[in-house]
Every structure is written in C-alpha cells, then in structure tokens.
Amino acid sequence: MAELPAHKTCISGKYPGSDVERLTVPEDKVSWSVPWEEYDPKDYTSEKLKTADYADPEISDPKFQPQWNANDGPLDRRSHMGNYEIADKMPRNPCGRTGIRGRGRLGRWGVNHAADPIVTRWKTDKHGNMCYNSHDDNPVAQVVLIQRSSGDWAFPGGMVDPGESFEETAEREFCEETLDGTGFLHLGPSSKDYEENKKLIEKYMKKGVEVYRGYVDDPRNTDNAWMETVAITFHDPNGNTFSKLKLVAGSDAKAVGWKDVSKDMSLYANHKDILHRVAKRLQAHW
After folding, report:
1. pLDDT of amino acid 181
2. Considering only CA atoms, which of 151, 179, 189, 194 is closest in space to residue 249?
3. Which of 4-18, 187-201, 272-286 has the lowest mean pLDDT?
4. How many helices (H) and strands (E) does the chain have?
5. How do residues 45-94 score in pLDDT, each as one tens digit?
6. Crossing angle, helix 192-204 and helix 166-178, to 10 degrees?
C-alpha cells in the first residue's frame, strides 16, 4: 500500500470551475478517524457528467452496480492506496475529508486513474556543454511541461482509458498534449519525419522508469471521487531523442515547453513532489 499523503489543495475554497464553496476542513479534522459529528458538506457533481459518455451514472441509478475495489469489466476500480471504504453506498476518499461530497468534475466514483509521463534532458549551452548550477555544482535538468487552462504548469498526463495500461496512457497523452494533439500533425502523415518520430516515440516510451504510484493532491478531489496516478520518467541523456521533437501544445494545453528543474518551480497538484523524486534519481540540481 502506498503512503497516504496529506491534503493541501482540496480542503478549502471554491471547487474548480464552479461557484460551490467547500466546507473548510481543519487539518486536524481531515482524517475520517477523527470524529466530527457536525460535518455536513455540500454535494456537487458537474451537470456535464450527466451526458458524458466516459462518466459513471449516479449512485442512485438502480442499473449502476459497480464492483468497488476490483476490476469492474474494463475499468479498474482498485486504488493504489489499498482498499477504500464504502459509506452510504459511496466510496470514501482514503486520504480524508475534502469539504465537498459527490464527484465534482471527475468522471468516476472512487478512484480516477491517470498516468503522467515525465520527460527530461540535461540543459546545455549553445556549444552543447552541460550546464551546472553554481551553488551545488549539480547538472541542471529540464522537463517537458504543459500549461493548463487554469494557468498551472503540469506534466502532460491524463486519464487512463478503459482497458489501457498506464504505459500506453503515458505515451498517448504525451503525443496528444505536446505534439499538436494527435502526434506529429505538423509533419504530415505521409512525411518521412512523421514515421521516424512515431518510431522514436514508440521505442523510447518503452524505456520509462516508474517513480510514483499513488494519490494525487488534486483540487478536483471530493469525499467520493479522487485522482491517482502512475508517474513514469523518460530521460534523454544525450539529447538525441525527445530533444529533437518539435513541441506543439495540444487542444487541452495553453502552452508547452522545456523548463529548468528546481525547487523554485510552482506546479499543479503534487507534481513538484513527484518531480523532486526524478531530480534525486538523476542526481540533478534541485
């Protein structure tokens, strides 16, 4: 079972993309093990989910008979955190209270699985020499990030489709988010570069290393729906693979680019904590 992280982004304030205010949850009342008889947060599920083909039905739908904590047909409703509790017929967030019930903007009741590709390289000067930080003498790494519509910078990851592996999701999302939405459209599907880049991505995306598997401190989390991810890192040490790709933001991103890795970065959810693991693994500046 993965270690249960603490909530930081989903215990107060307005729920993202809505006017619904969370019930503020004091840090000492986050855990379900702490009694709080007065706890009665608002229930919010986005209206868009009612007609979304990727979303679960309402809990009250008699035809909806999910298999919690198990493979439910092509859907994996198991959590990386271990078995979660079911209370009032609804799954309960294993990391504690969030100040809001329902699904919010998340499609699935319970765990919503994602995968995050973390693509890195060494920063070099105009002569091709590696750059080192002047304070700790460690090499400076760079990472591919996208800017979300909210303005936050994040890994180019996304939701796992039914029946898809985490590795397949990481590859698909990297292409969709950083290579013009479908992967190499700017090259033209009949071009030689298109085929070469496609083979390059398929080859090197098989060499990823998992650095994190667990809960995401995502502002969309609720008491009954939450995000979990598998983060996989792909390093380009010589600058002859991912560095050669032309990055073009997909439809879900405002911008995309290589960013210097450091502790001063401000990233979405707990992506900074995950990136710190990658920096340690590379023995890079942080």
Report:
1. 47
2. 179
3. 187-201
4. 3, 13
5. 999 999 999 999 999 999 999 999 999 999 999 999 999 999 999 999 99
6. 140
3-class secondary structure, 94: coil
> Buried (b) or exposed (e) across 128-143, using 16+ Cβ within 10 A?
eeeeeeeeeeebbbbb
Residues 45, 46, 47, 53, CA torsion sign: negative
Q: Of 22, 161, 154, 38, which is closest to residue 93 (Cα–Cα)?
A: 22
For the chain, the average pLDDT equals: 91
What are the tokens at 39? 């706890």
H-helix segments, the chain: 166-178, 192-204, 271-282
Short-list 148, 140, 105, CA closest to 266? 148
Q: What is the pLDDT of residues 165-198, one digit of tens each?
A: 999 999 889 988 887 644 444 444 555 666 676 7
Residues belonging to the chain? 286
Report the C-alpha gap between 177 and 175 in whole angstroms: 6
Burial 26-35 (b: 16+ CB within 10 A, else e): eeebbebeee
Nearby residues of 75 by Cβ (< 8 Å), 6 or more positions away: 108, 162
In angstroms, rounded to a whole number, what is the distance separating the alpha carbons of residues 261 and 245?
19
Residue with tokens 């998992």: 210
From the list 54, 56, 42, the residue with the least C-alpha distance to 91 is: 56
Q: How far apart are CA 237 and CA 123, in angstroms?
A: 10
3-state secondary structure of 263: coil
